[in-house]
Amino acid sequence: MLKSKYSDGFFSIDKENGFLPLAEPLRQLPEAYTDLQTLIDQMPIEREDGSKGLLHTEGAFEKAVLQIENHLEQVKSEKDPFVRAALFRAYSFVCSAYTLAPAHHHFIANGTYGKAHRTVPKNIAQPFAEVADQLGQFPFLDYHYSYSLGNYYKINPDGGFNWENLGMAAKFSGMSDERGFIMLHVDINQYSPQLIEGSMGIVHAQDDEEMNHHLELVGTALKHMNARRRLMWEASRWKHYNDFRVFIMGVKGNTDIFDEGLIYEGVWDEPKAFRGQTGAQDNIIPTADIISGVVDFYPENQLTQYLMDLRQYRPVCVQDFLKDLKESSTGSAGTIARLKASNNQKGLQLLLKILEEIYLFRNGHWQFVQKYIMSNTAYPKATGGTPITSWIPNQIKAVLSAMTTVDQLTEDGAHGFDKKEWKVRFEKKVQLLNKQLEIVQVPSFNPEDVFKLNAALGLNDA
Ligand code: HEM
Prior knowledge:
CATH class: Mainly Alpha
Largest sheet: 2 strands, antiparallel
Number of domains: 1
Radius of gyration: 22 Å
Strand content: under 5%
CATH architecture: Up-down Bundle
Bound molecules: protoporphyrin IX containing FE
Number of strands: 6
CATH topology: Methane Monooxygenase Hydroxylase, Chain G, domain 1
Number of helices: 20
Shape: globular
């Protein structure tokens, strides 16, 4: 049964808050953690006042980390969800910066990542594992509590959620491209309340009118999200992605950097390997995939397993929401099946518009990967540990398959639907992907050849 709200006291997945926290996250830790807060403030390569921070100088951050008091007992007594979230954020930043600092300096000197430190010191590992346990999370930098949604503050408190008005409470590089990159994720989520309202409305709709109203709501939310997403090209310059990328790398899947894992001193005897921070932990596309039925077209392969694995890297309340949403929209309760059963032609067309937005999101996102990653580095693994060139396009194929199925149910001319025109646009999408996949199959391919095709077929995102 789908509930109207899913909350852990920090997030509340409902039509008021969407996927954003209930209120602005704490910018600073409580006084008992002053040494830790000072470390966070002094950490970025470039600090707020323009001076060089600890990560700028090789070895300086690691030295400072060892001076921090072990706050394990204090952390055990914390009950406030906002304090817990801010502590998780602080410790996860310290953990990633500490372990990956050598890889960062190796990259600056040699252009390759080199090795990370393999041990998280006890004074960080123990309180981090404790707060992670309280939140039901793995002790590693994540998207919700750490790097993105739980890491913003409004520069002008009366202003909105556009990325220009958002600052990062904790940062690695401290440069404007890092802020633009991750705060745009928060910005895009300002439309998630409508996405939730529409999705819940679709599940509960009693007739075509209610169904179509909520399909329209989802389509409009996704359209706004796509318009904001496209601003990535200016919010964060692709050539500067490597300034901060190394710090969000995960352990799992990145054995070149971390070997067989990380030792959490004083917590576990054996090494652990958790996945890294990635937009793949965001909830917009998973929600849209479930409600539109794209999820039923996911290929049965390792990528799908990876996306499902990432469910565990989300707050428990988000996991519950996605699980219930899926259970409420499966089989004959699925949106496509219900639209087919009532031959709701208007609804089918609204669903095609939703699928178009999911396609534009994924195709634009694939172009991010081509430019921000493939044009910048030969390292083929993403921060989440996936082989990027083969996996990302796979999900575009799932969208194209869902589109074909829905198109087969639509009638030419119903409510002015022009099937022929739709087909022409659809074929371009298929052609683009096939040609791009052909290029990336050659081991020494040139990323620019992949990117140029987007404009050639009129599907350029920038
Ligand atoms: C410069 C911008 C971006 C780059 C370079 C990028 C890169 C990537 C990469 C490499 C993956 C593969 C999985 C992994 O991490 O191992 C991925 C997956 C994903 N990313 Fe991003 N990403 C960007 C922006 C975004 C934004 C703004 C969102 C949404 C708010 C997002 C949502 C997703 C989703 C949902 C997936 C899972 C794959 C799918 O379902 O299609 N990404 N991203």
